[in-house]
From TrEMBL, chain A:
PANTHER family: DNA POLYMERASE EPSILON SUBUNIT 4, HISTONE-LIKE TRANSCRIPTION FACTOR CCAAT-RELATED. It is found in: Nucleus. This is DNA polymerase epsilon subunit 4. Component of the DNA polymerase epsilon complex consisting of four subunits: the catalytic subunit POLE and the accessory subunits POLE2, POLE3 and POLE4. Interaction with POLE3 is a prerequisite for further binding with POLE and POLE2.
From TrEMBL, chain B:
It comes from Phasianus colchicus. The keyword Disulfide bond does not apply. Residues 9-73 form the Transcription factor CBF/NF-Y/archaeal histone domain. Accessory component of the DNA polymerase epsilon complex. Participates in DNA repair and in chromosomal DNA replication. Forms a complex with CHRAC1 and binds naked DNA, which is then incorporated into chromatin, aided by the nucleosome-remodeling activity of ISWI/SNF2H and ACF1. Does not enhance nucleosome sliding activity of the ACF-5 ISWI chromatin remodeling complex. Residues 93-143 are annotated as: Disordered. One of its GO terms (biological process) is heterochromatin formation. The lineage of its organism: Eukaryota, Metazoa, Chordata, Craniata, Vertebrata. One of its GO terms (molecular function) is protein heterodimerization activity. This is DNA polymerase epsilon subunit 3. The keyword Cell wall biogenesis/degradation does not apply.
Length: 133, 143
């Protein structure tokens, strides 16, 4: 984990930049089919559940953050699930406009550009080296 | 704890399932799009954590709680998530309580030892023992 000099950027942005710089193969190798982990079955059982252990790893990766309660990790995981649903649906609108039944990367890009709440994904998402002076 | 970049990925299988359940039947998703959504979800968690942390710091707490995360959702303009999140949290709390009762019946001695543990413990090694944290029962859900 590199230690870039800290300006006024929040810790998580450095983290994201560092991670985004990793070669694609590395990331894909690391992503296993592991849907396990300490994932309690909560809320409506029909939706898939993100493993709390992975969410916790993200929380701990931010150097500015101390501890997080189990509940906080759970709510973050659940929020991330809702986020995935939301962005997928918003992106799908563009696939429909293009009369496609396959969601493509460009649909994501369009949704991110169009939806205000997704503004935090702009820039970083394209792995631009915007965080380095 | 491992801080390698790879550990920041969320599992493909789960992400794919969530996407499929959100979209109509028969809709596919390209590998690139799926991967992009997965990365976006990771960024979302990082961003939400950072926001939540600000609320915790404002409250002079070193431990993020559920209320901080909910406040973060508001801040990030994801207000529409708040109601379903509160609902899920209630269910989760009930389930955790049920598990706790079951554990108490099994091994009372181990439980009393856990209750003596410091709750504001800054020792990172304790983090992995998520099931043993008991501070959650008293936590208020802000907002």
């Amino acid at each position: 984990m590199p230690h870039p000099c800290r300006h006024s950027r929040p810790g998580w942005m450095w983290l994201w930049a560092a991670w985004a710089g990793a070669p694609v193969q590395e990331r894909q190798r690391a992503v296993g089919e592991d849907a396990g982990g300490a994932a309690p079955c909560a809320g409506s059982g029909r939706a898939a559940r993100l493993p709390l252990s992975r969410v916790k790893a993200l929380v701990k990766a931010d150097p500015d953050v101390g501890l997080a309660s189990q509940e906080a990790v759970f709510v973050l995981a659940r929020a991330a699930e809702l986020f995935v649903e939301t962005i997928a649906k918003d992106a799908f609108v563009y696939a429909q406009q293009g009369k496609r039944k396959t969601l493509q990367r460009k649909d994501l890009d369009n949704a991110i550009e169009a939806v205000d709440e997704f503004a935090f994904l702009e820039g970083e998402f394209r792995f631009l080296p915007v965080f380095f002076p | 704890m491992a801080e390698r970049p790879e550990d920041l990925n969320l599992p493909n299988a789960v992400i794919t399932r969530i996407i499929k359940e959100a979209l109509p039947d028969g809709v596919n998703i390209s590998k690139e799009a799926r991967s992009a959504i997965s990365r976006a979800a990771s960024v979302f968690v990082l961003y939400a954590t950072s926001c939540a942390n600000n609320f915790a710091m404002k409250g002079k707490r070193k431990t993020l709680n559920a209320g901080d995360v909910l406040s973060a959702m508001e801040e990030m303009e994801f207000q529409r998530f708040i109601a379903p999140l509160k609902e899920s949290l209630e269910v989760y709390r009930r389930e955790q309580k049920g598990k706790k009762e079951a554990r108490k019946d099994k091994d009372k001695k181990a439980d009393s030892e856990e209750q003596d543990k410091s709750r504001e413990d800054d020792n990172d090694d304790d983090d992995e023992r998520m099931e043993d944290e008991e501070q959650n029962d008293e936590e208020e859900v802000d907002n």
